[in-house]
Specification:
The complex is a heterodimer of chains A (253) and B (335).
Chain A: H1 2-19, H2 22-42, H3 46-49, H4 55-72, H5 74-85, H6 87-92, H7 98-126, H8 134-163, H9 166-182, H10 195-203, H11 205-219, H12 223-252
Helix pairs in contact in A: 1-7, 2-4, 2-7, 4-7, 4-8, 4-9, 4-11, 5-8, 5-9, 7-8, 8-9, 8-11, 8-12, 11-12
Chain B: E1 4-12, E2 18-27, E3 32-36, H1 43-50, E4 58-63, E5 66-67, H2 72-78, E6 79-82, H3 94-104, H4 109-122, H5 138-148, E7 156-160, H6 168-183, E8 187-191, H7 195-201, E9 204-209, E10 212-217, H8 219-226, E11 229-235, H9 244-254, E12 259-265, E13 268-273, H10 276-289, E14 294-300, H11 304-312, H12 318-331
Parallel strand pairs in B: 3-8, 3-9, 6-7, 7-8
Antiparallel strand pairs in B: 1-2, 1-4, 4-5, 9-10, 11-13, 11-14, 12-13
Helix pairs in contact in B: 3-4, 8-11
The chains are: A mainly alpha (253), B alpha/beta (335).
């Protein structure tokens, strides 16, 4: 199977590039850590408003998702680099499977989000956050986040392939991150939102994923919310992958 | 069976630009073939089509006897491609770059490891093999790039200006590798600005201008077609430009016999004449009478440079291209 082996070698390349740029890794983890340590302290009194709970426990799901969201946006810029340097062209001149070029990158994005989320969860554990669903909960959380990261990388990949400009991808990512985050249940329960925001957040895909993860941390197994989140993420994945494949074909031909 | 066979090849880009306008040529198996032309002539487009990176608009193109679009996968296994810019992954070591390339060419295991070791030695990167290629010099990067196109032992090697931007020493080294590869039977298809090397190494060449082939043949054939010596005239006050001085000078030259052709060049005027040496005193006298001051006069037997100038009206000057390319690379973001 050349698709599988080619994708593996592409994946391996991205992994090497990732660990050899530790500064990049550090800065992308910096923001979620600040949220985890400082933001949750600053807004700890929300816990009282939410019925006497620990706000850090509440916000962890949102912070993990936020990290996945912003990490996934770096995918497009990496592809822009490959287009500009000619590396993409060089790969296209080999018999390597075309799909593996995208698949290898997406797998590396998912893996990266998985690893970063694990780091955040370990830190959160130190701050007293652990899912009541225990070990299985951790596994389910990590897979949900990784899947979410994979789906979102599609947007950034499609944007990168279309605009061929890292600045544009960054610009759009930066513009989208906070509005989407704030208009979701990532950092606040919907009960404390103004009505209009409540309606927006009910349709915000981030909310679905956050709710599923939060349930695993705070409530227990809620298969309804879990399956619903996978449904929503799958839908996003289909849309973003469709757009990515469409743009990729245009670049390749 | 020819290594490359192209008939009426056309490439029209989406925006309507016709980059290649129905060219035809053939490269024999084992040939060292030069593909020359000014910037924007369509060389890179042609290479991209022949290496299956770009789709052709119409026409026939076979590589190693295979139709390039129908048998693209097979073609990719038989060719090596070096692009205009040096393309390596600078986050990876030299060895890792070669291993990746081998893996993408579906090579595996010990066979690949040995091949990579062998190539690292060939391009003198044995000592630096496990260093990150970001720390390589320009010449080392180019050599690594070249090695990465050879991992799978291609039958035909396509090179788009492989020595542009290199210092003279690295350049000579690359040319000597290419010569060696050709001697092992590899077909080499190369675009370059270095006409002296083309003259020395290429068995045949084609000159492309505005998407059309304007000349093809062996270097000696093309030079003898000129059939005349070249006399280069420089004028005082530098470049006479398009001003009346140049017109006046041409008038003066027109009155002299024995001149086959008068061509404008950036430095002044170039004329072609049989037995050019004998004409020099006449030229000097005529200009003296017309009170046009010459700053230089030179006579040489025809070179590929003249062939190029005759067919394209332009002259290749690698040094300037080097400079512009170098600054372009400097401005690029490194990964």
């Amino acid at each position: 199977m050349t698709l599988a082996s080619d994708s593996y070698y592409m994946f391996q390349r991205w992994m090497k590039k990732l660990v050899r740029n530790p500064i990049l890794l550090f800065f992308s983890l910096f923001q979620p850590i600040i949220f985890l340590v400082l933001f949750t302290q600053l807004f700890s009194s929300f816990g009282t408003l939410l019925g006497g709970i620990n706000y850090t426990v509440f916000a962890t799901a949102g912070i993990v998702l936020q990290n996945a969201f912003s990490s996934a946006f770096q995918s497009g810029t990496a592809v822009v680099d490959d287009i500009k340097s000619g590396f993409l062209t060089k790969m296209l001149a080999t018999p390597a499977s075309r799909a593996s070029i995208l698949l290898g990158r997406l797998l590396s994005d998912a893996f990266r989000v998985f690893a970063q989320s694990l780091i955040i969860l370990v830190l959160a554990y130190g701050l007293g956050v652990f899912p009541i669903t225990g070990f299985v909960g951790y596994v389910l959380i990590l897979f949900t986040v990784a899947f979410f990261g994979l789906a979102w990388s599609g947007i950034s990949l499609a944007l990168g392939l279309r605009t061929k400009s890292a600045e544009t991808v960054f610009g759009i990512a930066g513009t989208l991150t906070f509005p989407l985050l704030f208009m979701s249940t990532a950092l606040m329960d919907k009960r404390l939102m103004p009505d209009w925001m409540k309606s927006v957040s009910a349709y915000n895909p981030i909310s679905f994923a956050v709710n599923a993860i939060r349930d695993l941390i705070m409530i227990g197994y809620n298969w309804n919310s879990f399956l619903l989140s996978f449904g929503v993420i799958s839908l996003i994945a289909i849309l973003t992958m469709g757009a990515t494949i469409y743009e990729f074909k245009k670049v390749v031909s | 069976m020819p290594a490359v066979q192209v008939e009426n090849l056309v490439k029209t880009y989406g925006d309507g630009t016709q980059a290649v306008k129905g060219i035809s040529f053939k490269v024999d198996d084992g040939e060292f073939f030069g593909f020359l032309g000014p910037n924007g002539a369509g060389k890179s487009t042609t290479i991209k089509i022949l290496t299956t990176i770009l789709r052709k608009t119409s026409g026939l193109a076979n590589v190693a006897g295979l139709e390039i679009e129908h048998d693209a996968q097979k073609v990719r296994k038989l060719i090596g491609v070096q692009m205009q810019d040096t393309v390596i992954d600078e986050d990876l070591t030299g060895r890792e770059n070669l291993m990746l390339q081998g893996h993408l060419q579906q090579m595996r295991g010990e066979e690949l490891k040995e091949r990579v070791n062998e190539l690292l030695k060939v391009v003198d990167l044995g000592d630096a093999a496990d260093k990150r290629s970001a720390y390589y010099s320009g010449g080392m990067k180019k050599r690594l790039d070249l090695a990465s196109t050879l991992v799978h032992r291609p039958k035909i090697l396509f090179l788009d200006e492989p020595t542009t931007g290199l210092d003279p020493q690295s350049r000579a080294q690359v040319w000597s590798y290419l010569k060696g590869l050709n001697q092992t039977g590899m077909t080499i298809f190369i675009t370059t600005q270095y006409l002296e090397e083309v003259d020395r190494l290429c068995r045949r060449l084609a000159i492309l201008d505005h998407g059309e082939i304007v000349a093809q043949g062996s270097p000696s054939e093309l030079k003898s077609e000129i059939g005349a010596d070249r006399i280069t005239l420089g004028f005082e006050n530098g470049n006479p430009g398009t001003g009346s001085l140049k017109d006046k000078a041409k008038q003066v030259l027109g009155s002299l016999g024995g001149i086959t052709e008068i061509v404008d060049s950036d430095e002044g005027i170039v004329i072609y004449a049989k037995n050019g040496g004998f004409l020099v005193p006449d030229i000097v006298r005529a200009f003296d009478n017309a009170e046009i001051k010459l700053s230089s006069i030179g006579v040489s037997s025809p070179t590929l440079d003249d062939v190029f100038l005759k067919h394209t009206g332009r002259r290749i000057r690698p040094e300037e291209i080097d400079k512009s390319r170098a600054s372009g690379m400097f401005g690029r973001r490194r990964r």
